[in-house]
C-alpha cells in the first residue's frame, strides 16, 4: 500500500469519527427540542403518563392559554419594546465608533480600542450591584428605558471590536472616489460605508438579538414590576407558578413560544451569521 492510499484511508477514518461525533451532538441538541415541542401539544396527563409518545389529540389551546392567561403576549411585547431600540442604537453607535477607530489615526486611538476590548473581559455579574444603584440614582430603575441603556452598554464592546475589524476590510478605493466627488464625512459614512458594511451590521444585529433575547440576569435585577417582565423573566415566573397551578402543558407551550423566534432567526440567517463573523472579525 503506497503512501497516498494510506493517507486517504486515514482521512476517511478521521472524517468518519468527526461525522459520528457531529451526528451524536445533533441528536443531543435536536431531540430535547422536539420533545418540548411535542409536549406543548399534550394534556397534563399525557405529559406525565406517556412522555415519549406523540399527543393523542393536538391541544392547540395550550398556546392560547399560555399567550393570554400566562401573559406571554405581554412579556413578548416588553421584550421587543426593549430589544429593538437596543439593537438599533447599539449598531448605530458601534458602527460610528468602529469606523473612526478603523479609518482615522489620532492620539488615543489604540487606547480607546483596547478600552472597548477590555469591556469584553468584564463579567456582568460584577456590575450588577453598581448598575442597580446607578440606575436608582438616575430614577430609571424598574423602567424599560433603563434596561435599554444597560443593554446598549453591555453590547457595545464586542460590537465595536467586530465592526472595527470589519471596516478595515472595506475597499478604500470607493471611499476615496466618494471623497474626491465632494462627499463630506457624514455623507461618506451613511451613504457609502453603511451600505458596504451591511453584512457585518446584519451579523451583529442577529448576534445581539440572540444575546438580548436570552438575557435573564440583567432584567431580573433591574426590572421588578411584573407588568414590565421580559420573556426570560416571565418564563421563570411561569415555571415557579406551575408548582401550585400544575399547568405543565401551558408551560411547555410558553417555552415553545419563547424558543421559536430565536430558532427561526437563526435558521433563516445562519449563513449570514457565519459569513459575517468570519470577515474581519479577528482583524484589529
Quick take:
The chain has 284 residues and is an all-alpha fold. Helices cover 76% and strands 0% of the residues.
Key phrases:
0% strand; MetI-like fold; single chain; 13 helices; mainly alpha; 284 residues; globular; disordered C terminus
Task: Give the termini distance in whole angstroms.
Answer: 48 Å
Q: Helix- and strand-based class?
A: mainly alpha
pLDDT < 50 stretches:
280-284
The largest sheet is:
none
Give the helices and strands as they follow along the chain.
Answer: HHHHHHHHHHHHH
What global shape is seen?
globular
In CATH, the homologous superfamily of the largest domain goes by the name MetI-like
- The total count of strands amounts to 0
Structure characterization notes:
By secondary structure, the protein is mainly α. The protein has 2 domains: 37 residues; 217 residues, Orthogonal Bundle (MetI-like fold), CATH 1.10.3720. Helix content is 76%, strand content 0%. Helix 4 packs antiparallel against helix 10, helix 8 packs antiparallel against helix 9 and helix 12 packs antiparallel against helix 13. The longest helix has 37 residues. The chain is globular, with a radius of gyration of 24 Å. The chain starts with a helix and ends in a 7-residue tail after the last helix. The C terminus is likely disordered.
Write the layout of secondary structure elements.
Layout: H1 3-39, H2 44-49, H3 61-68, H4 72-103, H5 109-119, H6 128-137, H7 144-168, H8 172-180, H9 185-196, H10 198-213, H11 217-222, H12 231-245, H13 248-277
Amino acid at each position: 500500500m503506497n503512501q497516498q492510499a494510506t493517507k486517504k484511508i486515514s482521512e476517511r477514518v478521521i472524517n468518519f469519527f468527526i461525522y459520528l461525533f457531529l451526528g451524536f451532538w445533533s441528536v443531543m441538541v435536536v431531540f430535547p427540542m422536539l420533545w418540548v415541542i411535542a409536549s406543548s401539544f399534550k394534556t397534563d396527563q399525557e405529559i406525565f403518563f406517556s412522555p415519549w409518545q406523540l399527543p393523542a389529540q393536538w391541544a392547540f389551546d395550550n398556546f392560547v392559554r399560555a399567550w393570554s392567561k400566562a401573559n406571554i403576549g405581554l412579556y413578548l411585547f416588553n421584550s421587543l419594546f426593549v430589544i429593538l431600540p437596543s439593537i438599533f442604537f447599539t449598531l448605530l453607535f458601534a458602527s460610528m465608533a468602529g469606523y473612526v477607530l478603523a479609518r482615522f489615526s489620532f492620539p488615543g486611538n489604540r487606547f480607546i480600542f483596547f478600552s472597548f476590548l477590555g469591556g469584553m473581559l468584564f463579567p456582568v455579574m460584577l456590575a450588577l450591584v453598581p448598575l442597580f444603584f446607578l440606575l436608582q440614582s438616575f430614577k430609571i430603575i424598574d423602567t424599560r428605558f433603563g434596561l435599554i441603556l444597560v443593554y446598549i452598554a453591555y453590547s457595545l464592546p464586542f460590537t465595536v471590536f467586530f465592526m472595527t475589524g470589519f471596516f478595515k476590510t472595506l475597499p478604500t478605493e470607493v471611499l476615496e472616489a466618494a471623497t474626491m466627488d465632494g462627499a463630506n464625512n457624514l455623507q461618506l459614512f451613511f451613504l457609502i460605508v453603511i451600505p458596504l458594511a451591511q453584512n457585518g451590521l446584519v451579523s451583529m444585529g442577529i448576534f445581539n438579538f440572540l444575546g438580548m433575547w436570552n438575557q435573564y440576569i440583567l432584567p431580573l435585577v433591574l426590572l421588578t414590576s411584573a407588568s414590565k417582565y421580559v420573556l426570560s423573566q416571565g418564563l421563570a415566573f411561569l415555571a415557579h407558578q406551575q408548582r401550585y397551578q400544575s399547568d405543565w402543558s401551558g408551560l411547555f407551550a410558553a417555552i415553545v413560544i419563547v424558543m421559536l423566534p430565536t430558532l427561526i432567526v437563526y435558521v433563516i440567517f445562519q449563513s449570514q451569521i457565519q459569513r459575517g463573523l468570519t470577515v474581519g472579525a479577528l482583524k484589529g
